């Protein structure tokens, strides 16, 4: 697909470490190479540095008004200021098409583009049924989402959550798997690895319970939980209380994207819910054996239980402990699961996934062309 000098604006809260930020970097770089002019707008403070690579010709606009804890009144004022600055930045970017990521940002983008004749596509990146937003945001979403040109989700289950009116122009696009170039295998140290923000959603408290149940049977294994978040203190206290201080490391963010795949020997996903679970897919693409809660949504789409990974009922700590015990005990099983996982992940290669994003752009720009044609005939 060639851009033909089209202009695309992408709106996302920030450009830190995470699955959404990763996909934004992939599609922004791809569309730039395809001939589009690409602007990425974030709410970050000026001077923030992206975790993932963006080509120099991509314009990154930071509105300098990040999320913060505040009173209800101040929060409302902040939202209005974000919408005002966002509207100004979108106008300045002169887009032919706007793509927004994550629910609150989607709502603000749709409010900011009221009165603009620009197709806006919003993308939900989590489980819309289980991710908590509060009544105000849920009400706003139900009011403004019908204004969107279209909706992108990562699974059919997430798309089906929305009413038929929203699904009339919907796309299901999984996250692409894009392992870092030049990564090297440094495995063999018996490291069980988990990756994600240290939040309630990711279920690391459940993982610690499960590991505690089986750790004594596998004294040669350690658990590494990569990521940062507001539950670090609570998780560290739980780890120490379970007597796992020397068995569980929480080293924070990797110094470069995907570094954890080099040293991991087994990957585990313990999330209570997911929009997709990109770290799980990255582990599979790297040939790692994986164990995961069959949470909604994502793992059940990626993993064929017993063939290229092990799925256990979500939130079932005992079942997770049993699965970990099985995989940590059996080197041959680990090798078989890892080899099959690497094959299964090929369907999520970037070229296949980016073609689907190109379809979204094509549909949006075609609608613009038809609108201009109709006006010229009036």
Automatic annotation (TrEMBL):
<dbReference type="Pfam" id="PF13579">
    <property type="entry name" value="Glyco_trans_4_4"/>
</dbReference>
<dbReference type="InterPro" id="IPR001296">
    <property type="entry name" value="Glyco_trans_1"/>
</dbReference>
<feature type="domain" description="Glycosyl transferase family 1">
    <location>
        <begin position="183"/>
        <end position="342"/>
    </location>
</feature>
<dbReference type="GO" id="GO:0016757">
    <property type="term" value="F:glycosyltransferase activity"/>
</dbReference>
<dbReference type="InterPro" id="IPR028098">
    <property type="entry name" value="Glyco_trans_4-like_N"/>
</dbReference>
<dbReference type="Pfam" id="PF00534">
    <property type="entry name" value="Glycos_transf_1"/>
</dbReference>
<feature type="domain" description="Glycosyltransferase subfamily 4-like N-terminal">
    <location>
        <begin position="18"/>
        <end position="165"/>
    </location>
</feature>
<protein>
    <submittedName>
        <fullName>Amylovoran biosynthesis protein AmsD</fullName>
    </submittedName>
</protein>
């Amino acid at each position: 697909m060639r851009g033909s000098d089209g202009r695309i604006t992408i709106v996302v809260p920030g450009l830190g470490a995470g699955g959404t930020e990763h996909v934004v970097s992939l599609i922004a770089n791809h569309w730039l190479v395809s001939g589009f002019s690409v602007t990425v707008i974030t709410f970050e403070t000026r001077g923030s540095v992206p975790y993932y690579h963006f080509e120099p010709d991509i314009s990154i606009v930071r509105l300098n008004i990040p999320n913060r804890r505040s009173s209800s009144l101040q929060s409302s004022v902040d939202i209005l200021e974000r919408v005002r600055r966002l509207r100004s930045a979108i106008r300045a970017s002169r887009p032919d098409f706007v793509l927004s990521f994550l629910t609150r940002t989607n709502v603000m983008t749709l409010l900011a583009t009221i009165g603009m004749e620009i197709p806006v596509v919003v993308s939900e990146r989590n489980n819309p049924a289980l991710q908590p937003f509060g009544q105000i945001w849920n009400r706003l979403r139900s009011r403004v989402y019908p204004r969107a040109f279209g909706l992108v989700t990562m699974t059919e289950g997430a798309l089906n959550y929305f009413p038929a009116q929203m699904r009339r122009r919907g796309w299901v696009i999984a996250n692409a798997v894009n392992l870092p170039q030049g990564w090297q295998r440094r495995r063999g140290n018996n490291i069980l690895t988990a990756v994600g923000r240290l939040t309630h959603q990711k279920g690391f408290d459940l993982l610690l319970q499960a590991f505690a149940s089986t750790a004594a049977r596998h004294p040669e294994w350690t658990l590494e939980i990569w990521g940062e978040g507001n539950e670090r203190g609570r998780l560290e206290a739980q780890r120490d209380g379970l007597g796992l201080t020397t068995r569980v490391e929480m080293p924070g963010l990797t110094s470069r994207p995907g570094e954890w795949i080099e040293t991991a020997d087994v990957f585990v996903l313990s999330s209570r819910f997911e929009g997709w679970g990109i770290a799980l897919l990255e582990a599979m693409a790297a040939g790692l054996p994986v164990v995961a809660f069959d949470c909604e949504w994502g793992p059940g789409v990626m993993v064929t239980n017993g063939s290229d990974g092990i799925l256990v009922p979500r939130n079932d700590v005992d079942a997770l402990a049993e699965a970990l015990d099985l995989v940590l005990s059996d080197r041959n099983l680990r090798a078989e699961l890892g080899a099959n996982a690497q094959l299964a992940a090929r369907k999520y290669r970037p070229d296949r996934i980016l073609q689907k994003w190109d379809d979204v752009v094509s549909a949006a720009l075609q609608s613009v062309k038809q609108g201009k044609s109709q006006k010229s005939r009036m």
